[in-house]
């Protein structure tokens, strides 16, 4: 039911563990496969590993900043690590990054030889002071993907970032160059906060923001990519439960990746998400991922169509026992009033159907209706 063919790879379920330190060696990769992941992606492998250690992570209870610079292992070490990772079977994708097509292709060829089932090219990390990230440049993306895919037989996925303001164009360039899939998003450039007593930022340089708060941003990127290209999309960002996985699938993703939630909760979260997904599919009598893939994407409307649909707000039952008055205080159009001991009165001339009162009402008393 959850099995899916993702870029030519047969996954037992669509839950992939993303590139990061939780997949930093063979044992960790194997462990995440044992915990039930459909596939795992190595921490990004580069030709010139960064050896500095020190503070790399800050968390504010909601989102997380990291300034970790990829795998610290030399490329050759990954021969042994991939062997360990694959010792029980399962699908292992190697994440790679670099500065030029030839450098990235060299890594891809080696990792194919070492046994990787696929390659993810990560061109989207926002760490450090530079705001320019390589995947902003469609021509560079084309050249890298073209070179890599001409030189290896295993599938190539390209990992993009929300920072790309031409995400449709970059996605099309990746597809044209031979990418089998696109994944999005990487972390978002951030400074998590400032210690105001010490007068210092929480971490000493710009880093990448991940976890729960980035999901709405990532959902939009995934939807834009899915609207632009017809190759599979892998949704990443803030996934912490099965409902989040379904959201991504309904917006056009064929598979998803999880990172921060695994780091914060441990590998039991993989099993929980996969089991809950299976249960939901059974309850809804859905037989395959393709049955729901893109269902919500079809319903995204162009902005100018929205003006044609006048909506208005009504209270199902005029009397409100709660009487908290939040709807009255929040309505930006001054359309709501309470009269006669908490009778809710909505001025239909003033109400523009914005929906704000519905979200502030603690008892779901108000509803939006199509005016027609
Ligand atoms: C500590 C940390 C290290 C990461 N390392 C990598 C990496 O090596 N390569 C990569 O492409 N993405 C890396 N990422 C990004 C994640 O794979 C993922 O794209 C991002 O965190 C959003 O997903 P999440 O909210 O589920 O974590 C890292 C993220 C974190 C938090
Ligand atoms: S839908 Fe918007 S405009 Fe209408 S009553 Fe509610 S808050 Fe006011
Ligand atoms: S926000 Fe809801 S509960 Fe509060 S007064 Fe308005 S309708 Fe009643």
From TrEMBL:
<dbReference type="Pfam" id="PF00037">
    <property type="entry name" value="Fer4"/>
</dbReference>
<dbReference type="GO" id="GO:0006212">
    <property type="term" value="P:uracil catabolic process"/>
</dbReference>
<dbReference type="InterPro" id="IPR013785">
    <property type="entry name" value="Aldolase_TIM"/>
</dbReference>
<comment type="subunit">
    <text>Heterotetramer of 2 PreA and 2 PreT subunits.</text>
</comment>
<feature type="domain" description="4Fe-4S ferredoxin-type">
    <location>
        <begin position="342"/>
        <end position="371"/>
    </location>
</feature>
<dbReference type="GO" id="GO:0046872">
    <property type="term" value="F:metal ion binding"/>
</dbReference>
<dbReference type="GO" id="GO:0051536">
    <property type="term" value="F:iron-sulfur cluster binding"/>
</dbReference>
<dbReference type="GO" id="GO:0005737">
    <property type="term" value="C:cytoplasm"/>
</dbReference>
<feature type="domain" description="4Fe-4S ferredoxin-type">
    <location>
        <begin position="311"/>
        <end position="341"/>
    </location>
</feature>
<keyword id="KW-0503">Monooxygenase</keyword>
<protein>
    <recommendedName>
        <fullName>dihydrouracil dehydrogenase (NAD(+))</fullName>
        <ecNumber>1.3.1.1</ecNumber>
    </recommendedName>
</protein>
<comment type="function">
    <text>Involved in pyrimidine base degradation. Catalyzes physiologically the reduction of uracil to 5,6-dihydrouracil (DHU) by using NADH as a specific cosubstrate. It also catalyzes the reverse reaction and the reduction of thymine to 5,6-dihydrothymine (DHT).</text>
</comment>
<dbReference type="InterPro" id="IPR017896">
    <property type="entry name" value="4Fe4S_Fe-S-bd"/>
</dbReference>
<dbReference type="Pfam" id="PF01180">
    <property type="entry name" value="DHO_dh"/>
</dbReference>
<dbReference type="GO" id="GO:0050661">
    <property type="term" value="F:NADP binding"/>
</dbReference>
<dbReference type="GO" id="GO:0006210">
    <property type="term" value="P:thymine catabolic process"/>
</dbReference>
<keyword id="KW-0411">Iron-sulfur</keyword>
<keyword id="KW-0560">Oxidoreductase</keyword>
<dbReference type="GO" id="GO:0004159">
    <property type="term" value="F:dihydropyrimidine dehydrogenase (NAD+) activity"/>
</dbReference>
<dbReference type="GO" id="GO:0004497">
    <property type="term" value="F:monooxygenase activity"/>
</dbReference>
<dbReference type="InterPro" id="IPR005720">
    <property type="entry name" value="Dihydroorotate_DH_cat"/>
</dbReference>
<comment type="similarity">
    <text>Belongs to the dihydropyrimidine dehydrogenase family.</text>
</comment>
<keyword id="KW-0408">Iron</keyword>
<dbReference type="GO" id="GO:0002058">
    <property type="term" value="F:uracil binding"/>
</dbReference>
<dbReference type="InterPro" id="IPR017900">
    <property type="entry name" value="4Fe4S_Fe_S_CS"/>
</dbReference>
<keyword id="KW-0479">Metal-binding</keyword>
């Amino acid at each position: 039911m959850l099995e899916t063919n993702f870029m030519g790879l047969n996954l037992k379920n669509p839950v992939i563990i993303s590139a990061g330190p939780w997949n930093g060696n063979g044992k960790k990769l194997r462990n995440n496969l044992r915990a039930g992941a459909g596939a795992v992606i190595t921490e990004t492998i580069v030709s010139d590993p960064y050896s500095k250690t020190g503070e790399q992570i800050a968390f504010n209870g909601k989102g997380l900043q990291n300034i970790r610079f990829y795998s610290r292992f030399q490329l050759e070490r990954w021969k042994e690590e991939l062997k360990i990772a694959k010792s029980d079977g399962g699908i292992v994708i190697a994440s790679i990054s670099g500065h030029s097509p030839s450098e990235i292709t060299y890594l891809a060829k080696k990792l194919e030889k070492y046994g990787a089932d696929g390659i993810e090219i990560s061109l989207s990390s926002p760490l450090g002071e530079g705001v320019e990230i390589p995947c902003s440049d469609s021509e560079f993306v084309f050249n890298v993907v073209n070179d890599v895919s001409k030189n290896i037989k295993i599938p190539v996925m390209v990992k993009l970032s929300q920072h790309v303001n031409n995400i449709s164009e970059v996605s099309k360039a990746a597809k044209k160059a031979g990418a089998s899939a696109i994944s999005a998003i990487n972390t978002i450039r951030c400074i998590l906060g400032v210690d105001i007593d010490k007068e210092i930022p929480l971490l000493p340089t710009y880093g990448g923001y991940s976890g729960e708060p980035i999901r709405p941003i990532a959902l939009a990127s995934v939807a834009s990519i899915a609207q632009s290209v017809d190759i599979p999309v892998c949704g990443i960002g803030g996934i912490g439960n099965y409902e989040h996985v379904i959201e991504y699938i309904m917006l056009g993703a064929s598979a998803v990746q999880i990172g921060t939630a695994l780091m914060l909760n441990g590998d039991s979260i993989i099993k929980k998400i996969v089991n809950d997904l299976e249960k939901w599919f059974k309850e809804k009598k859905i037989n395959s991922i393709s049955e729901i893939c893109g269902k919500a994407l079809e319903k995204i409307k162009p902005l100018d169509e929205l003006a044609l649909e006048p909506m208005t707000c009504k209270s199902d039952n005029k009397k409100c026992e709660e009487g908290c008055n939040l709807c009255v205080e929040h309505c930006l159009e001054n359309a709501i009033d309470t009269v006669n001991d908490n009778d809710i009165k909505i001025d239909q001339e003033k109400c523009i159907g914005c929906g704000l009162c519905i979200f502030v009402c603690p008892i779901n008393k108000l509803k939006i209706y199509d005016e027609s």
